[in-house]
Amino acid sequence: MCGIVGYIGPRQAQEVLISGLAKLEYRGYDSAGIAIHDGAQIDVKKKAGKLENLSTLLDGQPMSGSLGIGHTRWATHGLPNDTNAHPHATEDGRIVIIHNGIIENYLTLKEGLMSRGHQFKSETDSEVLAHLIEEAYAGNLEEAVRAALAQVRGAYGIVVTHVDHRGIVAARTVSPLVMGVGEGEMFLASDVPALLAYTRNMVFLHDGDMVVLNDDGFRVMDLAGNPQQRTIEHIEWDAEAAEKGGFDTYMLKEIYEQPQALTNTLIGRLHDETGEVNLDINLDPGSFKRISIIACGTAFYAGLVGEYLIEQLARIPVEVDVASEYRYRDPLVSENTLAIVVSQSGETIDTLEALREAKKFGAKTLGVINAKGSSMTRELDDTLYIHAGPEIGVASTKAYTSMVSAFLMLALWLGRARGTLSEEQGAELLKAARELPRLVEEALAPERVARIKEVAEKYATARDYLFLGRGVNSPTAYEGALKLKEISYIHAEAYAAGEMKHGPIALIDENLPVAVIATESRLLEKTISNVQEVRARAGKVILFLSDGDTENARHGDDVIYVPRAHEMVSPVVNAVAMQLLAYFTATALGKDVDKPRNLAKSVTVE
């Protein structure tokens, strides 16, 4: 959560900081602020609300200096107001800090500091760090930061500057930080997109790393002061990949990027001639007696599709856990368990802690991850990268469909390796997988998009929605409801269609739109029976059907056709229609789909 940017070099820091924060605002937009060292003092300006509020302030009061740090906040401790916005400074203004994460023992630390005469301005846990550093400072900022961090318990990505030093000290535990290496200049950020306008050479900091940046470069050490070697990595995608590219919103751009994202996920991994998949995974597929899939939010629903695919194709028992509950339920884990964690960012704190819990009990671990160099990738036994590219919109789209495609490949890999899937069956499913980029391209055809927009606008004023699906597409219904809730703020629920008569049917009346995924499958006939139950209660049925299914069209008040696909790959194609339904509902209501209220892209606090 929250976004950090830092800069030291010959440029005016204000421009770099504001540019970087604009790329990170998806991480939080409750407030924003920057601090710039002009050679004599550190000036701090911050403002509640979106970054544009700070930019407006700076238009009238520009800041000068070539060293600075900036922050965009998603509030945890303290209301989202000017005072609680970062950066935070000591009373004399000589030390300025920015912090992502949560200091769990901040109250005890704060009480101790106040008893020793420190005065606090904000309600945040973060301000404690500024005072701890001030108390420990004796001329060496690096040592003071190290001494302060030795007293805290929790998660942090912290950047610090001092009026007497031309440099930035930063450290991380859990909260991500990446450095950008330029020619005679150094950059720092929470995520790569903030830096791509200036450099593609990046250094990903590890948990427990501390770094000192100056005009000459950087030094990395652990929190005990021992030097650490970190590789400079060249990022292949450029700044343009993180921009809107002519679309009105990042979300719409990323919906339309899905054919390419899926190509990137699948390319080089499918071998038609043998019906096998090469995932470059070194784990032994025959050694697992059970699989646990652990994730949050959208990634959790991708995991539910994965459960269905793996059990069907590889015949291994699978359970799917909400990551935030996993380590608190005392899970049964052994060395014969494969724990699969799923995360777009690779930084989701609940999932990261669940990963550590599984490892503690001896499970082998695999990640389905988008972001390279993330915290999870450094702790996993192996990683299946989805290669979806940068995803800026808070509501996940292309990462979700790429995750589902990754699970399809994983199920194929396990099934072929364990002998539960024949060469012929494997070849059939590989052919279906290869079709996915083309099918999603078809799903985004103008006439299809226009039809979904028409239906979305028709029901945009509904107070509630119900989503239904069966089999491998029941998770698609859950994901459809989540998308609608996230960006339109319409209350939506989702159920496996057969469960409707066990309670949710009481909700149905003439005012309730019911979106039903009824594409071609072995459960289609049963799904249509569930549709009849809705119609008998006067519910408004939005029916998602496979192309050419005119027979079942008569059961819907509104019909949306999607490209016909193999049942096992249909969740990818159907998800696109769900995304568009949510998108056009939200835009009809005038909502900011890229920055839905109360949400942030990367959840790095529990």
**Total beta strand runs:** 26
Tell me the β content: 15-25%
Major sheet strand order: 3-2-4-1-10-9-11-14
**Number of distinct helices:** 18
Molecular shape? globular
Classification by helices and strands:
alpha/beta
Overall average pLDDT: 93
What is the CA-atom radius of gyration, in angstroms? 25 Å
**Regions with pLDDT < 50 over 5+ consecutive residues?**
none
Cα distance spanning the termini: 10 Å
Largest sheet: 8 strands, antiparallel
Helical content, roughly?
Answer: 25-40%
Q: How would you describe this structure to a colleague?
A:
This protein is of the alpha/beta class. It is built from 18 helices and 26 strands. It is globular.
Secondary structure: elements and pairs:
Layout: E1 3-8, H1 13-24, E2 31-37, E3 42-48, H2 51-60, E4 67-73, E5 88-89, E6 95-103, H3 106-115, H4 127-136, H5 141-149, E7 154-162, E8 168-173, E9 178-181, E10 186-189, E11 201-204, E12 209-214, E13 217-222, E14 233-234, H6 250-256, H7 258-266, E15 270-271, E16 276-277, E17 290-295, H8 297-314, E18 318-322, H9 323-326, E19 337-343, H10 349-360, E20 364-369, H11 375-379, E21 382-385, H12 398-418, H13 423-434, H14 436-443, H15 446-458, E22 464-469, H16 474-488, E23 491-496, E24 513-517, H17 524-535, E25 540-546, E26 558-562, H18 570-588
Parallel strand pairs: 17-18, 17-19, 19-20, 20-21, 22-23, 22-24, 24-25, 25-26
Antiparallel strand pairs: 1-4, 1-10, 2-3, 2-4, 5-6, 6-7, 7-8, 8-12, 9-10, 9-11, 11-14, 12-13, 15-16
Helix pairs in contact: 4-5, 7-12, 7-14, 8-12, 8-16, 12-13, 12-18, 14-18, 15-18, 16-18
